[in-house]
Design a protein that fits this description.
By secondary structure, the chain is mainly alpha-helical. The chain contains 6 helices and no strands. Helices cover 66% and strands 0% of the residues.
């Protein structure tokens, strides 16, 4: 069955590629965040929002940028990979942003909760906040442009099909209603 907009096979290829990249990224994140650390001491759990960020900022510019950047970047690819793997091309940008940021926040929270049983790892609420912000920033920066590009690409394909009769028209299946 053909989908509206871009062709059905293109949608399948995009979603398959997005799903493969999503699984690969999640495996990398799990390996990075859930492996035990061999450290002589562990910082206490941070459950006060922005306390860790303020402490990082007191360390000075390069170290603060590195620490905050790491937390922003850890789950940031999900901002693009989640809509790529499971998104719909014609959805409200705000609804898509909220749905993707919520998924990022829940995944970050799950990682923080799983880290409680891993030696050398502690829960840090600022990591959850920064991970969620990274997902939202990437989504807001890339997904609307990607959807516009896919829409223009589909429109070009549709025009080419109509303008070039030698190539033939795309077959359509009329919608059949259910009889009363």
């Amino acid at each position: 069955m053909q989908r509206q907009g871009i062709g059905g096979s293109a949608v399948i290829r995009i979603r398959a590629a997005g799903s493969v990249l999503l699984v690969a990224h999640l495996l990398f994140v799990a390996w990075l965040t859930l492996r035990p650390l061999d450290v002589p001491w562990v910082m206490p759990t941070n459950l006060h929002p922005f306390a860790g960020i303020r402490a990082d900022l007191r360390l000075g510019w390069p170290e603060a940028a590195r620490r905050i950047g790491e937390d922003l970047a850890l789950l940031a690819p999900l901002g693009l990979l989640l809509p790529l793997a499971h998104g719909r091309p014609s959805v409200s940008p705000l609804a898509s942003l909220v749905r993707t940021a919520t998924a990022g926040a829940l995944l970050s929270l799950a990682i923080a909760l799983l880290q409680t049983d891993v030696p050398g790892r502690v829960v840090d609420i600022d990591s959850v906040l920064l991970n969620t912000a990274g997902v939202a920033l990437v989504h807001a920066a890339l997904v609307p442009a990607a959807r516009a590009w896919v829409g223009r690409r589909g429109a070009r394909r549709d025009r080419r099909t109509v303008e070039d009769p030698a190539q033939g028209l795309t077959p359509t299946i009329p919608r059949v209603g259910i009889a009363p």
